[in-house]
Amino acid sequence: MGRIPCCEKDNVKRGQWTPEEDNKLSSYIAQHGTRNWRLIPKNAGLQRCGKSCRLRWTNYLRPDLKHGVFSDSEEQTIVKLHSVVGNRWSLIAGQLPGRTDNDVKNHWNTKLKKKLLGKGIDPVTHKPFSHLMAEIATTVPPLQVAHLAEAALGCFKDEMLHLLTKKRADFPANGTDVGDGTGFPYAMSPVEDKEETVQKIKLGLSRAIMQEPGTDKSWGLMENGEPSDGLPVVSMCDDDLYRTIGDEFRYEGPSYANGEGSAWSQSMCTGSTCTGGGGTPDCHVLHEKHSDDEGVEAEGKRRKIDAGLFGSDGVLWDLSDDLMMNHIV
DNA sequence: AAACGAAACAACCGCAAACAA
DNA sequence: CTTGTTTGCGGTTGTTTCGTT
């Protein structure tokens, strides 16, 4: 017994909507409302799946939608809410009049996530990477550190690779301050091609993963403290640096009690080495949905979180005391 | 001007909750 | 209470647009 399809696949058009289709759908809904999406395409004379019509309406045609760029305050709201509820896009969109969950999701994935990563903040936990490292170092038995590092790097390797290679290409070749306020010098040989850089970074990551627990943790450094392989040396434990570079977002210090993950830690980790069973504690929580029984319980918890966050009128509570993300204007 | 890659946006898919009969 | 259907949601994929070489 399979699931009943929402429509006949054969006679259904897919892909981009034409203005005529938009008109048909809009005028039909204006007259008859949005009851029974399965019947709407048929009655409106559209060769579309009801689901497709619903999506088109809710994400694009609805008259109350905003279509412009996200404002600073909207971005702040998204980051703040995401730090509390995670990838609950509909919940977040509910606090942004005129924005859809798809809008918010796309904006997060294409802009905000990278923005945070670029500032050294883990977009999953909203903590600076330095704090994550420190937590791992202090709370985990040394023998597990290497495995956790591997899992973490697996989760973020693509983003790290992207950022590192991009940054490298952007830095000046004379090794002076790049002028972003970080005082971070970067020396790059002009003849060094990008592919070589990528290979070096990959090698560095691999070494970090392979490194036995208890050995020198100063990744990328040779015994004399000089960078090996020409890789940059970045202090990942410098909160002052973080505050300096955080011209838009500022981390005000850990707020999770006793190393507990935030309420939203079911956010996705799609890293290839993250298998859900092992890995970091967060990674374990992320995959709780995979178990049906646990999934029900997780959903129950989720609903409690929802109920706690929003009043009966759906208005967001004042979260300023609970949030770890503050904004500098 | 053309080719290529990255970013942004739009749409689809499958799952599960909610609802109605 | 059970079963079938609809709706909402989040993840993913496909397409278009923009910027760079």
UniProtKB/TrEMBL annotation:
One of its GO terms (biological process) is anther wall tapetum development. GO terms for cellular component: nucleus. One of its GO terms (molecular function) is sequence-specific DNA binding. CDD domains: SANT (cd00167). The keyword Amino-acid biosynthesis does not apply. PROSITE patterns: HTH_MYB (PS51294), MYB_LIKE (PS50090). It holds the Pfam family Myb_DNA-binding. Residues 9-61, 62-112 form the Myb-like domain. It is found in: Nucleus. This is Uncharacterized protein. It comes from Asparagus officinalis.
